Amino acid sequence: MRIYVDHAASTPMFAEAKSAVEQQLSATGNPSSLHADGRQVKDRIDRAREQCSQAAGCLFGEFYFTSGGTESVVLALAGSALNSPNGRNRVLLGAADHHSVVESQAMLNKLGMQVQFVPANRDGSLDLNALESMIGDDVRLVSVLATNNETGAVTDVNQAAEIAHKSGALLLCDAVQAWPQVLPEADLIVVSAHKMGGPVGVGGLITQNGTKLEPLAAGGGQERELRGGTENAMGIVGFGAAAAEAALRADEISSVKRSAAEHFRDRLDGAAFTLDQASPAGIVHFRYPGISAESLLIRLDHEGVSASSGAACSSGSIEPSHVLMAAGLSEEEAAEGLRVSFGWCSTVGEAEKAAQIISSSAAQIRQV
Known about the structure:
Layout: E1 3-4, H1 15-25, H2 36-56, E2 63-66, H3 69-82, E3 90-94, H4 99-102, H5 105-110, E4 114-118, H6 128-134, E5 139-145, H7 157-165, E6 170-174, E7 188-192, E8 203-207, H8 233-248, H9 250-267, E9 272-273, E10 283-287, H10 293-302, E11 305-306, E12 308-309, E13 312-314, E14 317-319, H11 322-326, H12 331-334, E15 337-341, H13 348-367
Parallel strand pairs: 1-11, 3-4, 3-5, 5-6, 6-7
Antiparallel strand pairs: 2-8, 7-8, 9-10, 10-15, 12-15, 13-14
C-alpha cells in the first residue's frame, strides 16, 4: 500500500464534495438558461458561492469562481494592471512566490508595469523589512504568499497589508495552502479547491475593499462580467461542499496536519530542515546534503512513497527551485530539497512510516 505525503500538490476529496459532484453529473442544463433545468443548476452554483463566501468571511458578491489558483493569480495581476490609476506602474512580487506569480513578469511588463521582486527570508517567507523599503506611491500592487507551498513558511499577511495600504497599493494574497484555516486581510485573495478537499479544475478569486478589476475573458456576463464562459457547475458545487466541510473542521484539520508533520520530523534521520518547527499547513521541507532530490524521489517512488521535490519539472529535467534560491540556498543545495506534506486525512502512522522509509532510502543512497 502506497503512502501519500504530497497533499500540498493535491489532497483527496471530502466525501461531501464527491457527493455534490456526483449529483451534478446527473443534471442537465446551462445555468444561464431561463428554464427550470437551467435555474436548478444556477441555484446550485449560488449555493456553492454562498458556502465559499461564508468560509472565506467575505460577501457573496466578492467570491468569483475560476479554473484554479493560477487563473485567479493571472486575473488578479492583469486585471489590476489594466485598471491601474495613472502614476501607479510598479508591481512588487515575492521572489519566493508561486510560479504563476513569479513568471507573470513578462505579461505585466507588456501591460506597462515595472516589476520588482521582494527578497525572501531564509525560510522562504517574505522579507517584510525589504517590502517596507521598496513600497512607494507608484506601487499598484504587492503580492504575498500566505504559506509558502514549498517550505511551509508563513508570512504575516496582515502586516504586509498595512505596508501596502499606507501607500495606497493593493495587496494580493496567494492563500492556496492556507485557506480556510487562515483568513487573510487582503484586497485580492487566491484560493484553490483541490488543495483543501475539493475537485481539480476549479478555484476562486476573492475581491475585498471594493477592489475593481478589468475582465480578461469577455462575453456571456458570467461571474458578474468579470469572467465570461459557461460555469464549471460540477467543479463549483464540489468546491462549495468542500469549503463548507473544511471550514467546519478547520481546527481539527489543522491539528491533524501539525501532528503528522511533527511526528514525521521527529523520526526523520540525518536531514537538514528549512523550518525549525512543523508548518501549520502540514508541510515539511528538508534536504539530505550530498543527495540529489531526483535520485531520492526515484527510490521513494519505488518504495511506495509519493513525495515531491522543491524543484519544478521543466522540459523533462528537474531544475533547482526558484523558492530555495530566493531563500539563499546555493544551486546545489536547492537541487537537494524535498517536500512532504500532510492533509485532512493523514495519519501519524503514515507519517512515521514515511519518515522511516525516507531515512532508510537516504542511507542506502549514501552507501552506494
